[in-house]
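Weekly structure sync - notes
Attendees: PM, LS, DV (DV joined late)
Agenda: review two folding runs queued last week.

Item 1: First target. Sequence and structure tokens pasted below for the record.
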Amino acid sequence: MRFPVKRVSELAPVPKEQRWLVEGLWADQAVGIVGGEPKSCKSFLALDLAVAVASGAPCLRHFPVNKTGRVLLYAAEDHPHVVRSRLEGIARKAGVDFASLDVFSIVASQIRLDSLNHRQSLQETVETVKPALLVLDPFVRLHAGDENAVSEVAPLLAYLRSLQRRFGTAVLLVHHARKGAGNARAGQALRGSSDLHGWGDCNLYLRRKGKDLLLSIEHRAAAGLDSLPLALQGDDDDLALHLLDPHPTVDEHPPPTPPERIQSALAQAAAPLTVRQLREAAKMRTQNLCQALHELVENGHVIKEHDGYRLPTP
């Protein structure tokens, strides 16, 4: 029996107002990751999204909610009283009545996505609660496999995608970044298999730069934002993340481009430099160096001689 097909013009469009769960932050029925280094407030961001979706209050006091609904969450590393305290503090900051907040917490001691019984139990729970958003925090506590092995990670992500498609729920997975990946592109900094990055429809990344906490937003089907400054504000019973500036200024001193690094190294040299010497002076990979050198020579900005490369004589 053949699969059904339709002309693309006959496919039902999604009304613009229904594309977002939280506008600009999380798409309706999207799966994705809130990722970041340890102690970068990943759980606070996930809980802020939970309060926003359940109440309709803007997330981070800025991003409007387009669709409200029940939220189901599982916090594997936090005691239930910690979860309650954090949600209560966020609700106060958002001006929301905590007692009526439509957020439900799974209080089981353990959930393993690599266990057939646990997957069945989670599916039945989602079917009963009917959440608009499912929050699972963190991924490392939800399985016993190797996060670097695609063969072990892919089935877990496929299961979560099946929950999203079957029950029309958005799925938010909290996950850690790799150690020493502070300079890596946000998605590439996630720990484990690259499938984790590719799986997300909406991915939010938190990282610290000195004392600053920055949020980067990445979407599969919409433009993202980078380096939005956040701060955890309030006292012990009233902590919540706040967006400090929704329109950050562009860095006035961006890092030098590869051609600029090459020209700077040549300007400081007393004699022509070989590719090897240039690679060390400009601190560049050979492939990137050779590509930039070729363009510079083609455009007459660098002269190639038998003993190396130099800048044109003024």
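Item 2: Second target, run right after the first with the same settings.
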Amino acid sequence: MAEPPPDGARLFVAGIDHRSSSVELRERVFIAEAELPGFLAALREAGIAQAVVLSTCDRTEIQGAHRDPAQAADTVLRLLAARGREPEATFRRHSYMHADAAALRRIFGVAAALESHIVGEPQVLGQLKAAHQQALATRMIGPELEAALQAAYTAAKRARTETAIGQRPVTLVSAALQLARDVHGDLGRCAGLLLGAGDMGELMADHLKAAGLKSLVVSGPSSARAEDAARRLRCHVVPFGDLETPLAGADILITAIGGGRHAVTAAAMERALVHRRRRPVFVIDLGVPVDVDPAVEALDGVFRYDLDDLEQVAMSGLASRSAAAAEAWAIVEQELTLFAKSRAERAAAPIITALRRHFEITRSQVLREAGGDAARATELLMNRLLHGPSEALRKIASGEAGLEIDRDTAERLIARLFRFDEDGPPQDEERRN
């Protein structure tokens, strides 16, 4: 991929995600919607004029543009480390940073949901667009970042419409809805509890509500994320520290934490069942690793399904998912190539304009000097236009210092520019003369 011009802002991406860091660290670094203007202002004060802040359950990352992307990424990681109350050296071990072509690929991959915990999940594109709008509102978008984001949206749309990449999340939700109806029948009599504010958990809860779920409450380790999720889902928040009552009231439990330990133990579920008088509970465990102790499956009235279980119900297997992801990445690579080509063509526009202007000025001067003599005008024009390139070629051939190009390269470039391969000039004869 072509590198950006040296005098322009260069793309960078820096942050943490579900691959590089723990849930606990991501919870501490998470930037709630109400905090975004303040964080964008902090970036501006630190010298970063173009930035989009994307903070979700999977990641908190800043996509931006700066003359020195390494410096900008360092600034971002320092601010995030301070926000997470983590020593900077430790934080960096759980972070990532990309510049130029790698940053652009990351932006495209995120937009297309290829970098998500659940590949193909549909929320991330909307989240990115919302972050983009927030940055526009605070004047944190410049031409370099704007062009990259618009191209990323095009790639994401193609990936979703031309491959099966988006089918997995929707199919998982459909499978869960059918299983919920199998367990409870009419969802209009059911209460739901969402633990964690993961994108897939929100998607699942949203579809359950659309299918008639009577009520829903949200809880999670991060009160800020839980409150943001509750606002989007138009429901209430309950404290994460005391789940006994919410568990007892939940006919459908959705978990999307993935913190590495069981948020719901078998003992806690057994106590909830006593309060429920053994009314069944349908558990949708979306955590990776799982949030609910698998031992609950031995309890009478508990029906627990994790992602693998839903996958078996919904899809034919890993091969189809991998194939869809590979097809989507191929589309992303195509769009990256098209973007690089377009960018290179735009970068060449000023010199092309200058060349045309130079030729036009020379033509006007020659016409005035020739006084209407066409033969004289063409001879003068040819000599004037060839004078500069001829002098440069002689200096290159003589090895004059300061010209970082050799004769063979210069001749190949001229042949390509003027299509000598089509005209077939007698180059060897000209050299002998």
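Discussion on item 2: The radius of gyration is 30 Å.
Action: LS to circulate a short write-up before next sync.
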